[in-house]
Amino acid sequence: MPLLHCCARWILTCAGLLGLLALPSAAGRAQQPRAAALDTTAFTDRVEQVLAAVDDEAQTAQAAERVAELVDQPLNVNRASAAALTQVPGLSGTVARRLVQRRRADGPFEQWAELRALPGLAPGTLRAVRPMLHLGDAPAELFPSLRTLTANLSGRVTQRYARDLDLGRGHRTGRFAGGPARMTTRLRLRHERRLELALTLDKDPGEALRWAPGSGTYGFDHVVGSVTVRDLGPVRTAIVGDFAAQLGHGVALWQGLRFGGGRNPVSPVLQPGRGVVPYRSASESNFFRGAAATVGLPADLSLTAFVSRRRRDATIDSSAAVSGPLPVRTLSAGGLHRTATERARKGTFGETTMGGAVEWRAGPVHVGAAGYHATFNRPLRPGTRPSRRDRVSGRQTSMVSLYATAAWSAYSLFGEVARAPTGAYGGLAGALIERPRAAAVVLGRWYPPALAGLYGNAFSAGSRPQNEQGFYLGTRVQVAERWTVRASFDQFRAPWLRFNVPRPTTGWDGRAVLEYAPRPWLSSYLQVRAQGREEATERPGPAGRPLEAVQEERRTSLRWHTEYRFSDALTTRTRVEWSRHTTPAATAHGVLLSQGLRWTPVSALHVDVGLSFFDTDGFAARIYAYERDLRYSFSVPVFFDEGRRSYVMAQYAPWAALTVAVKYGITTYARPRTIGSGLNALHGTSRRALRAQVQWRF
To answer: DSSP secondary structure string, 101-166?
Structure first.
């Protein structure tokens, strides 16, 4: 049996690696591992919890970048707002508010032990989030001198090189204009938190380095940058350049990432907006370009305003018979410009957007109103398909919303109502209770089909807050000192047609997790997840012609995951996962066996090794599994068919200012097959990739 062979190879390989890597640290194994440092098993587990809730590849990259940025530039516990603290994965809104209230009442925190006394902040959570926080001083002078500014200026330059060693059809046939490498350069200068200059340059595989200002190409295909000033008198934040706006609860306006439930089904549901923030991501969509500011006003008021003018990729309908500019059929968010066709879409759609928000905060009550108005250089015409009936169309659009949050002790109420230009109203409302040993959240949402917007990103089962009704319940209970149960259930419905689905559909998603953490160096969890959703299919019709239909698809998975830190030098991660996908016509199964190791022979060197065996009945029973990757780029590959995945990564910091990292990975299939699709397709049994990164701090 292939599966038995996989198990045997997996066990033998893991035993060999454990024996090899554990020997240098035999002396250290007799000692109890030190408390969690910067790079710990607990922190790795926290990252995976975050990424497990993200299904979109671009948003996964943004989540990785956010976490890595927090590690590189930790938040000052004595200065950060409650909204900023909730961006730390693992810190709930209730804990963040309690921290700010304690700081205002008793002054700044001087020792980490003071944080342990906060109700609701578990010791394990504090260990996990410590790399993303620090205990800093109170704000300095309002206008620092030039000498002070330059003396405290810090910077970071990161250069990354990545490429697939096995080239797809686009590279082999010369269809792509550029080479197979992806190159990313990041520059960041900071004076404390008050002044920041950021620049990101990115070239995707297949793109050429060229200078074409008319299409927004300046050497690298993707260039974003910003200058940010914070805490300058009444000016809380001012940004010139590229930025994102996150206001309210995301029904009307929320650009960038929203963390979903994942293994933490309670805290991520209530995420207060951060206002306007600089945009530094290599993702090429969903941001503004212009100027933005948030200003504090008397009477506990604040005002946020922004103006943006940028060009986006779009597909133009060249067949339209119009006298003015040709209309746009679809907006593209992929960001790839490798072929002449892809380059023709770049920057063809211009949008000018103005908007902002007014907010009032008084103790536990937070009320705000937000909105935007956007105009386009050419009309949007999404097409005549019934599923596109309610998409944004024409030469302009807008949206306004009212939102509020009220918190008393462990209880919170929140909600947002938005209005679209069509006159449709939609929104969400929920309630949250958080206590040290238990928490629960309920949330209802109503997003009518006519609630059409460009920038909404609220809690939903789909990609946007539109054409969805649903009810969500999440809970966390610490049943014993070392045992925690987490569970969630989401029931949702699409009252109108989705893409390629001929009628309204329903779906549900349930998850239960049992966590066991008897020691700081040992943690384990068992997860059961079941999903059901109605999806499109085809059935035989008259004269052999296929008819569009709907069928229920169910997906079930069972996962066991454990992490064990033998010593400060050796940490292991073991995972076993089984999946099943069923339809009325077929059933598919899959299994994954995975082993990861981190070896740290000296503090300056980290070596990560991963080995996975998988066997599934095709793509339907696919399994996703997190693996370590270069900083700013965590990886969640998908496994299907039969094969194995292995990788090795080394990170070396010879000096505090310099870090060098290299990763090599290979996925090998049991039988020759076509790997990838379209211009990325290649035929064979393996796919290899190499990544390298150099980071210099000054």
So the answer is: HHHHHH----SHHHHHTSTT--HHHHHHHGGGEE--PPP--SS--HHHHHHTEEEEEEEEEEEESS
